[in-house]
Amino acid sequence: MSDYTAILEQEIQSLKDKIAAANDMPPELRSKVDKDIVALERSVALGSYDEKYEKVSRYIEWVLKVPWNKETEDTLDIEKTKQIFEKHHYGMQDVKERFLEYVSVLKLRKQNFGDGEFKAPILLLVGLVGTGKTTFAISLSEALGRELVRIPFGGMGSAKELRGASRLVLGAEPGKIIKGVCEAGVRNPVILLDEIDRGSEDANKDIMGVLVELLDPNQNVAFRDEFIDYPINLSHAIFLATANNTVAIATAVMDRMEKITMPSYTDHEKIVIAQKYILPGLLKEAGLKPDQLVIADDVWASVTRPLGYDAGIRTLQRTLQGAVRKAARIIVERGYTEVVINLDNKKIFLPQY
User: Does one domain contain both 167 and 36?
Assistant: First the structure.
């Protein structure tokens, strides 16, 4: 036996060992993978081993990553949920109330019917940029103790990005859905379908087709990724979606979701959010102590409306980032102990449009 043949046999044996150690792999899939190994052993004699090995080994590595049965146990504590949503969200009371109702329903279903009757409502958060849609998914994930998988749809050019490509294609991989589930390590994460209205117009019809399958409880119990090519049970995952508007969303997809309209922030709410949540974090990132940058009360109106009306807080955050950076430079270059932004000097720190 040549050294090269011995190396090939070691590589094949390594794959066999990994498969044998996978206790939760479905029997039918295990049989399918075993046949791939047999075909791989035959290819050694035919000289096409290298390409065959890359395809088979890549497939097996991904199959072994799929959490076929592993799940996290929910923390269904309504008081804890209240605290988390209050901690991360100021205002938005109606939206927070809907999420508290959501968790309450999950708790009652589990208490009264067990996991077998698990069918979580699918919420679609619709609102302008910067109104906190994505943050609500993060808060729900934290409250339930579930992993979070975020799948951005902005610029998505093909449904294959969601569903994957055939493993027969060299270099193919699973789609973003299964990749995210594999990364989470459990089959019941919170899956955030972010900005589902922003996929490519040319691919929108196919993308919506995948979403119908993904969001339908009668179909996602056996979701089939083109690369894995074996049904995966995603029925215990919690799906949340966000969109700026619903114009590009197919009716069949809308029918499977409950729309929640995100209200715009008032000026007062934005000031409180900036003072309590945004500014303290920006100061820490810049290495500044809380008392090293002071913004006078009568300046905040200019901070929150540099471009007139703005429903969200993205512009507000960018405005404060610029002010903090300028303050940090002044403190370092001039040796000041603190910087105070007032009406007289605000032009130095705030953008002028």
Answer: no
Whether 142 and 289 share a structural domain: no
Distance of CA 317 to the CA centre of its chain: 21
CA distance linking residue 280 with residue 290, whole number of Å: 7
pTM recorded for the entire structure = 0.81
Strands, sheet with 190-194, edge to edge from the N-terminal-most edge strand: 148-152, 190-194, 238-243, 123-126, 258-261
Q: Is the dihedral of CA 309, 312, 313, 315 positive or negative?
A: negative
- In this structure, are strands 293-295 and 339-341 parallel, antiparallel, or unpaired? parallel
73 falls within a domain? no
170 and 304 within one domain: no
Report the distance separating Cα 347 and Cα 8, nearest Å: 69
Residues 330/289/295/280 CA torsion (nearest 10 deg): 120
User: How many folded domains does the chain comprise?
Assistant: 3
Q: What angle do CA 35, 41, 46 make, to 5 degrees?
A: 120
Give dist(CA 220, CA 139) in Å, integer: 24
Helix-then-strand count for the chain, H and E: 15, 9
Q: Phi and psi at residue 269, in whole multiples of 5°?
A: -65, -40
Of 176, 178, 253, 249, the closest CA to residue 213 belongs to: 253
- Structure tokens, 60: 């097996």
Other C-beta atoms within 10 Å of 224: how many?
Answer: 15
Alpha helices in the chain, H assignment, sequence order: 3-21, 27-46, 49-65, 78-88, 93-113, 133-144, 160-163, 176-184, 204-215, 251-254, 267-273, 279-285, 300-304, 314-334, 346-349
Indicate the DSSP class of residue 244: S
Encoded tokens for 105: 């329903």
Mean pLDDT of 132-157: 94
Compare 310 and 31 and report the one with higher pLDDT: 31
Let me know whether 143 and 187 are in one domain. Answer: yes
Backbone angles phi and psi of 243, in degrees to 5: -160, 150
Question: Across all residues in the chain, what is the average pLDDT?
Answer: 89
